[in-house]
Amino acid sequence: MTVIVVMGVSGAGKTTIGTAVAGRLGVDYAEADTFHPPANIAKMTAGHPLTDADRAPWLAAIAKWIAEHAETGGVVSSSALKRSYRDVLRSGGPVWFLHLHGARELLAERMKTRSGHFMPVSLLDSQLADLEPLQPDEPGRAFDLARRPADLVAAALTAL
């Protein structure tokens, strides 16, 4: 079975879309932020972007979750900004990337208006700079995050 990785920069709506897709499919959902070590959360809260070394244990933990759900399927969120990060996630088992992308202005506005999240808007540009679009050989599809969540979920399930 395939695990869906809902990917995109902060503010893209990964949690909203991921939980909805998991609910429609009747599979487990995992929020990528819960896999971060406390030092990563502290670093981002302080406005410092993570390095590849910072992300390595986080990506390994998500890949482990993917491996644990390879038979039943599941949905997990992850920024999955770089191809090399997605390669680590794919090492856990078959995945399909649901990439939420959109205008910087919309992303920033979403980040400003949400509550209870550690990621400051000041890190958005570093995430956008790191973002590498899905390549033709990577399983998945990109979706415009400006669409209504229900429409995004329906389109993703149709594409899957």
From TrEMBL:
Keyword Chloroplast: no
Cellular component aspect of the GO annotation: cytoplasm
InterPro entries registered for this protein in UniProt: P-loop_NTPase, Shikimate/glucono_kinase, Therm_gnt_kin
Single GO MF descriptor: gluconokinase activity
GO process terms (BP): D-gluconate metabolic process
Catalytic class of the enzyme: transferase
ATP-binding listed as a keyword: yes
Keywords for this protein: ATP-binding, Gluconate utilization, Kinase, Nucleotide-binding, Transferase
Listed NCBIfam families: therm_gnt_kin (TIGR01313)
Name of the protein described by the UniProt record: Gluconokinase
